[in-house]
Design goal:
Helices cover 24% and strands 28% of the residues. By secondary structure, the protein is α/β, with parallel strands linked by helices. The chain has one domain (2-221): 3-Layer(aba) Sandwich (Rossmann fold), CATH 3.40.50.880. Helix 1 links the parallel strand 1 (2-6) and strand 2. The longest helix is centred in the last third of the chain and has 12 residues, at 210-221. The chain starts with a strand and ends in a 30-residue tail after the last helix. Belongs to the glutaminase PdxT/SNO family.
Length: 251
């Protein structure tokens, strides 16, 4: 198995490092023809507008859209989530081009600026059921987006509580958001739709590899080959004792 990682800007090196720990070859992808040599693709976090301009410069969007339509697994983290969304709000003036394919609306900068980056424990029962380990994942959110609504074919994998004040201050009209008795509302931060996986946070910046092993096993789910077994070295992690990383700064 060869996993491509879009290497225009952002945290592509961190994803490749995780893949290497799991014994899987990760290769940098910067040109359309390189997509022909990979089984699946990770679109990493970074600065989404910059990534979109570079992708447009290298004429990558048609090839990326074709890759998605072929049913090959694609995982977008943070900026990658924005790339995969069919609809996006909170864009800079003029907006940015999207790959699309994921039936959702994403707010590009829902959680605020760089200095408002944070970590939070997320309930991930579906990931724990399939990949083992604790039912909590420590999510690292760096100038992160959020998913405002999803279509009927989209499976929600993680939510995060958000105060009602956050909605008011963002002047958002959110559809179908889940009520939470303790914190007012919850916003969606991880989803799957067929061959597409998207997270608003950065699993590659933690010691918990379960999102990567989940993504690798998606290959067999969509008929692109089988992954016999992928070990997940999180047995020694508990919901209260997960490895934490200092938040890096991506310009």
């Amino acid at each position: 198995m060869v996993v491509g990682v879009l290497a225009l800007q952002g945290s592509f090196n961190e994803h490749i490092a995780v893949l290497k720990r799991l014994g899987v070859k990760g290769v940098e992808v910067r040109k359309a023809e390189q997509l022909q040599n990979v089984n699946s693709l990770i679109i990493p976090g970074g600065e989404s507008t910059t990534m979109a301009k570079l992708a447009e410069y290298h004429n990558l969007f048609p090839a990326l859209r074709e890759f998605v339509k072929m049913g090959k697994p694609v995982w977008g983290t943070c900026a990658g989530l924005i790339f995969l969304a069919d609809r996006a709000t909170g864009q800079k003036t003029g907006g940015q081009e999207l790959v699309g394919g994921l039936d959702c609306t994403v707010h590009r900068n829902f959680f605020g600026s760089q200095i408002q980056s944070f970590e939070a424990d997320l309930s991930v029962p579906d990931i724990a059921a399939k990949e083992g380990g604790p039912p909590i994942f420590r999510g690292v959110f760096i100038r992160a987006p959020a998913i405002l609504d999803v279509g009927p074919g989209v499976e929600v994998l993680a939510n995060i509580p958000v105060s009602s004040d956050k909605y008011a201050s963002s002047d958002l009209s959110l559809q179908g958001q889940k009520e939470n008795s303790d914190s007012g509302k919850e916003v969606i931060v991880a989803v799957r739709q067929g061959n597409l996986l998207a997270t608003a946070f950065h699993p590659e910046l933690t010691a918990d590899n379960r999102w990567h092993t989940y993504f690798l096993k998606m290959t067999s789910d969509v008929g692109e080959g089988a992954l016999a077994s992928v070990s997940t070295p999180v047995d020694d992690l508990t919901s209260n004792e997960q490895a934490k990383n200092d938040l890096p700064i991506y310009q």
